[in-house]
Design brief:
Shape: globular
Helix content: 10-25%
Number of strands: 16
Structural class: alpha+beta
Distance between the termini: 46 Å
Radius of gyration: 18 Å
Mean pLDDT: 93
Number of helices: 7
Order of helices and strands: EEHEHEEEEHHEHHEEEEHEEEE
Length: 284
């Protein structure tokens, strides 16, 4: 069988690209190389009509790196390596409903996340992504230089721990657990150099960054909020409209994401696998 080259179509000037003409269950070596290149260039890549079994989903993930199991999410029955991202019709809150990057609270954050759509509302439930290369590159040179000398503290207790956001949410019990596995806060550079592209990216996020190292939370807040407003500017973003069998694979080192919560009264069920990353050296 002759395998054609893939087609890569950018979603917006901000970030993201759809990858067409590939069956993730049967990629040629050439197609695999082209998919890797698209991931490195665009930060988040999207596939359509990939009706994978859980085993095939895992096999695709393992081509990139070993699985990084999220210790807080409820998992898919029979598949502890696959997290279930579910919102039921009667629920009002969703999972991931704010800008964030997965697992930045870990010493070695997950390199990427592979989200597969299983069941979708008739309308709504899109996901937004924002480009952290562009966010850094468009800051003023003086602020860039200052941020490159800084580290930031990241943590998970305020979200996943006892009395955290999810603990106070009555809907949280059906989605999360293992509060006792909340780890110590970790330190990462505010600016990282991406190992694939060599480009510098802003590495703070509204969900899990607590403060700058050696700064108080109060002193950190004005600058962090400035960075968050800047990084989420519309021209740095893209918006993905899901269909059943669609996959989004995003690079947690170079993009944020935000799951929109605009489909009350409908079910949305996604399966997510994270793949392992490494620390960033000069901070965490």
């Amino acid at each position: 069988m002759a395998y054609e080259s893939i087609d890569v179509h950018k979603l917006t000037g901000g970030c993201g690209a759809e990858v067409l003409g590939v069956d993730l269950k049967a990629m040629s070596n050439r197609q695999w190389g082209e998919v890797q290149a698209a991931f490195a260039e665009h930060g988040v890549i999207f596939f359509r009509d990939q009706n994978l079994t859980p085993e095939q989903h895992l096999a695709f993930a393992r081509r990139w790196a070993p699985i990084d199991v999220n210790r807080f999410f409820k998992h898919v029955e029979g598949h502890p390596e696959i997290a279930e991202v579910r919102k039921e019709p009667e629920q009002k809150t969703n999972i991931g409903g704010g800008w964030h990057t997965d697992h930045s609270y870990d010493e070695a954050p997950a390199m990427g996340s592979i989200l597969l759509a299983r069941e979708l509302p008739e309308e709504g439930g899109d996901t937004l992504f924002a480009n952290m290369y562009r966010a850094f590159e468009t800051l003023s040179p003086g602020l860039q230089r200052m941020l490159e000398t800084m580290n930031a503290v990241h943590g998970s207790a305020h979200i996943f721990g006892k009395d955290g956001v999810n603990d106070r949410n009555p809907e949280g019990a059906s989605r999360y657990g293992n509060q006792q596995l909340v780890g110590a806060d970790v330190v990462h550079p505010v600016v990282i150099r991406h190992p694939l592209s060599g480009r510098k990216a802003l590495y703070v996020n509204p969900a899990f960054t607590l403060r700058f190292e050696h700064w108080s939370a109060e002193d950190s807040r004005p600058l962090l909020e400035h960075l968050y407003r800047h990084a989420s500017r519309p021209e740095f973003t893209c918006r993905f409209r899901w269909r059943e069998g669609s996959i989004a694979f995003w690079d947690n080192r170079s993009v944020w994401h935000y799951a929109l919560n605009d489909y009350h009264g409908s079910r949305r069920l996604m399966h997510r696998i994270c793949v392992r990353g490494t620390g960033f050296g000069n901070g965490g």
